[in-house]
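Input C-alpha cells:
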C-alpha cells in the first residue's frame, strides 16, 4: 500500500514517491528551509517564477500569489493524482 503525504501547496494526498522537499528560497539564493510538495506543484512553481523572484517570497506569499491560487484551484479539481503542469506563455 502506498503511503500518502499531503502536499503543502495544493493539499492533495499524494503518493510518497511523488513528494519532494522544496526549498522556499532557492538554494542558489541561500535558502535552507524546505516544505514537502508534490512533484507537480514543485515543477509548477518553477514554471511560474524565476529563482530571483522566489528569493523574496515567503511560503505564505507564494501560496497566496494569484498565479499560484489559479494553479491550486485547477489542480485540486483533478480526481486522481496526475503529474501535469501549466506552461509559461
Amino acid at each position: 500500500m502506498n503511503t500518502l503525504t499531503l502536499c503543502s501547496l495544493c493539499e492533495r494526498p499524494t503518493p510518497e514517491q511523488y513528494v519532494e522537499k522544496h526549498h522556499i528560497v532557492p538554494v542558489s539564493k541561500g535558502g535552507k528551509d524546505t516544505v514537502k510538495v508534490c512533484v507537480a506543484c514543485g515543477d509548477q512553481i518553477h514554471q511560474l517564477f524565476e529563482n530571483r523572484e522566489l528569493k523574496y517570497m515567503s511560503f505564505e506569499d507564494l501560496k497566496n500569489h494569484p498565479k499560484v491560487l489559479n494553479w491550486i484551484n485547477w489542480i485540486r479539481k483533478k480526481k486522481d493524482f496526475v503529474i501535469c503542469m501549466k506552461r509559461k506563455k
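Confidence is low (pLDDT under 50) at residues 85-89. Residues 39-48 form the longest helix (10 residues).
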